[in-house]
């Protein structure tokens, strides 16, 4: 077990261990006592027991993609799982067992080619399974296939006392309930996820795209909303405001990605958009051959490494005038690399969810991904996000954990009863607050957890 101690390691070695795998280059000023580079389940158990002996906290890093760098905490032992990558596949039962630091791309690379299966993990290819699934998992085609955490059949967990246990629908049911939506407040360290898999479309993906000038934002968005509710159930639908590569003009880009075995069925699914699209697109394509790997490449390009990020999000009220609520967010981007996203959630948002911690959703998911390079732009870009969200949040029902920063903004992340149940489970399994929980302002939430209230209503 490789341990890098803050008070004895070379400064460069400690700093690399502390934040070298943190995706967001807006680095936090928080300093763990030590970083444990785990390579096995046994390493994780030993690290937790070491924290118990030292009477300090435990933090966990899976993929390092948390925008707020939740894994970097003062007075903690940081268990970095980056070198702990394992996956086992049972193709006959369409099940995989994977460690938390496996990324969506790594897992699907092991599934698609050899087994014709896939897991609807994160859209960004380098997002680790750990944080993604604990937060709920807004994965591929979530509006139709449901949340990725619904596919968690069970999980292996090291408790706050260092005991290795298994959790599923019949064993340690309360931890199993919490794991599907608790986010960084989960009171244990996951070592393996047992996952139900999807067939991968035999002929890959197909996509249609329509790029409009930002001047047609309202017209294009109104059209998109008018067709989304009844659109094909194997089609993911998103709208993005961005600056296309090589362009000085902001655009409103609408993307349909269909996941079917038969190209003719894919074309049939995409045809209603093609036949009803508004005039004025400056670029478009219809039913183009696509693949998960190509989509990963595009996501990677939109989320470049070694950049500074500030993310925020909201579930917009179903009865809101969505284009009006989001107009500033979609038409006044503060940097050429920034982008705003609307993601269709209906019909998933209209069905009764399984009994699990995850319980916040609406028809309209909205997120800001503000991306820039220079520290001198920090204040301006962050102020823009804050100003936009002050207006947007009043038309929201809550937010998604994965694109949130509890240090900056408080809102609702669960239904009221789910939030109370979740915080009680945390206190039951970790009464001392051994496992670092929700990183709020000054990291003071401890065993109390998040209040789960809209800040603007206080």
From TrEMBL:
It comes from the Eukaryota. SUPFAM superfamilies: FAD-binding/transporter-associated domain-like (SSF56176). Residues 28-200 form the FAD-binding PCMH-type domain. Gene3D superfamilies: 3.30.465.10, 3.40.462.20, Uridine Diphospho-n-acetylenolpyruvylglucosamine Reductase, domain 2. Pfam families: FAD_binding_4 (PF01565). Keywords: FAD, Flavoprotein, Oxidoreductase. Its cofactor is FAD. GO terms for molecular function: FAD binding; oxidoreductase activity. Belongs to the oxygen-dependent FAD-linked oxidoreductase family. PANTHER family: BINDING OXIDOREDUCTASE, PUTATIVE (AFU_ORTHOLOGUE AFUA_1G17690)-RELATED (PTHR42973), FAD-BINDING PCMH-TYPE DOMAIN-CONTAINING PROTEIN (PTHR42973:SF39). This is FAD binding domain protein. It comes from Penicillium frequentans.
């Amino acid at each position: 077990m490789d341990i890098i101690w803050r008070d004895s390691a070379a400064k460069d070695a400690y700093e690399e261990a502390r934040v070298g795998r943190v995706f967001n280059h807006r680095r936090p000023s928080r300093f763990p006592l030590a970083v444990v580079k785990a390579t096995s389940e046994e390493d994780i158990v030993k690290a937790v027991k070491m924290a118990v002996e030292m009477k300090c906290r435990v933090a966990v890093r899976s993929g390092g993609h948390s925008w707020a760098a939740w894994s970097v905490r003062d007075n903690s032992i940081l268990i970095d799982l980056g070198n702990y990558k394992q996956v086992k596949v049972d193709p006959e039962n369409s099940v995989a067992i994977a460690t938390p630091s496996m990324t969506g791309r790594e897992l699907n690379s092991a599934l698609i080619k050899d087994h014709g299966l896939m897991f609807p993990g994160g859209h960004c290819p380098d997002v680790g399974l750990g944080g993604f699934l604990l937060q709920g998992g807004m994965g591929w085609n979530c509006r139709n296939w449901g949340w990725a955490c619904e596919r968690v059949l069970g999980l292996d967990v090291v408790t706050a006392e260092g005991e290795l246990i298994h959790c599923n629908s019949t064993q340690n049911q309360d931890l199993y309930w919490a794991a599907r939506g608790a986010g960084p407040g989960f009171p244990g360290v996951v070592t393996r996820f047992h996952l139900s898999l999807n067939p991968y479309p035999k002929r890959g993906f197909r996509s249609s795209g329509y790029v409009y000038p930002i001047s047609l934002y309202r017209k294009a968005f109104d059209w998109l909303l008018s067709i989304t509710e009844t659109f094909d159930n194997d089609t993911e639908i998103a709208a993005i405001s961005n600056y296309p590569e090589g362009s000085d003009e902001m655009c409103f880009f609408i993307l349909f990605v269909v996941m079917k075995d038969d190209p003719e069925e894919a074309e049939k699914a995409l045809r209603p958009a093609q036949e009803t699209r508004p005039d004025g697109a400056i670029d478009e394509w219809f039913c183009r051959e696509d693949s998960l790997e190509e989509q990963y490449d595009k996501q990677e390009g939109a989320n470049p490494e070694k950049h500074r990020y500030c993310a925020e999000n909201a579930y917009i009220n179903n009865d809101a005038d969505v284009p009006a609520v989001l107009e500033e967010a979609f038409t006044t981007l503060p940097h050429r690399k920034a982008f705003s996203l609307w993601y269709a959630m209906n019909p998933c948002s209209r069905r009764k969810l399984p009994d699990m911690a995850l319980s916040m959703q609406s028809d309209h998911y909205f997120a800001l991904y503000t991306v820039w390079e220079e520290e001198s732009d920090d204040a301006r870009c962050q102020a823009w996000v804050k100003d936009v969200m002050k207006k947007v949040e009043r038309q929201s029902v809550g937010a998604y954990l994965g694109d949130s920063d509890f240090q900056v903004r408080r809102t609702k992340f669960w239904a009221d009863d789910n939030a109370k149940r979740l915080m009680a489970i945390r206190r039951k399994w970790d009464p001392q607050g051994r496992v670092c929980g929700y990183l709020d302002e000054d990291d003071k939430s401890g065993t109390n957890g998040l209040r789960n209230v809209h800040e603007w209503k206080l």
